[in-house]
Design brief:
Order of helices and strands: EEHEHHEEHEHEEEE
Helix content: 25-40%
Domain Bacterial bifunctional deaminase-reductase C-terminal: 3-177
CATH architecture: 3-Layer(aba) Sandwich
Number of helices: 5
Pfam families: RibD_C (PF01872)
Strand order of the largest sheet: 5-4-3-6-1-7-10-9
Largest sheet: 8 strands, mixed
Structural class: alpha/beta
Distance between the termini: 17 Å
CATH class: Alpha Beta
Strand content: 25-35%
CATH superfamily: Dihydrofolate Reductase, subunit A
Protein name: Dihydrofolate reductase family protein
Number of domains: 1
InterPro entries: DHFR-like_dom_sf, RibDG_C, Riboflavin_Biosynth_HTPR
Radius of gyration: 16 Å
Number of strands: 10
Shape: globular
Length: 185
């Protein structure tokens, strides 16, 4: 059985994007990107909402950028090799390989997906993650905490959600980024 992991870069005050929708303050450097590339090797399926998918579909062609650093090419190849499930009522079609469009988030279907996979799954984007967290489907929460406070925006965790977490791993990067990996109890 695979784990379902919620992992994103967040500001120290708990936001994945600021009040203008920007998240460039959290762009990983090579050291942290190499680490993320290693983590994603265990992932076989990404679960996305529309907005997060539209951000991440960049990786479908990122390896073709002139002078793309090797860590970018490596992440693009890992992303391309994984299955993607996009949950959206409004998206008309997907534009990447190995991608399926699903209209409604169904906790039972996601649990069946976890039960049938050998490689882990990630739930990406705070809106979709909220649904998975509230349904009790998330096994791990992984935060990459950037050394910046943005003062508002889209929260990493929703208001009103109580989680009991156990620290599994932590790592500090030279840039000041912190990786925190928790089991959901």
């Amino acid at each position: 059985m695979a784990k379902l992991i919620y992992s994103m870069i967040t500001s120290v005050d708990g936001y994945v994007s600021d009040s203008d929708g920007n998240f460039n303050w959290g762009t990983p450097d090579q050291e942290s990107h190499d680490f993320i590339n290693g983590l994603m090797g265990s992932v076989g399926t990404y679960l996305y909402g529309r907005s997060m998918y539209q951000t991440m579909v960049f990786w479908e062609t990122a390896h073709q950028m002139p002078d793309a650093p090797q860590f970018v090419v490596d992440y693009a190849r890992t992303w391309q090799a994984a299955d993607k499930v996009v949950f959206s009522r409004t998206l008309e079609e997907v534009s990447s390989e190995r991608t399926h469009l699903v209209r409604e988030f169904d906790p039972a279907a996601v649990k069946a997906l976890k039960d049938s996979r050998e490689k882990d799954l990630t739930v990406d984007g705070p809106g979709l993650a909220e649904s998975a967290l509230r349904a009790g489907l998330v096994d791990e929460v992984q935060l990459f905490v950037a050394p910046v406070a943005v003062g508002g925006g889209k929260r990493f965790l929703p208001d009103g959600l109580t989680l009991n977490l156990g620290l599994l791993e932590e790592r500090r990067f030279d840039s000041g980024l912190m990786y925190l990996r928790y089991a959901v109890r």
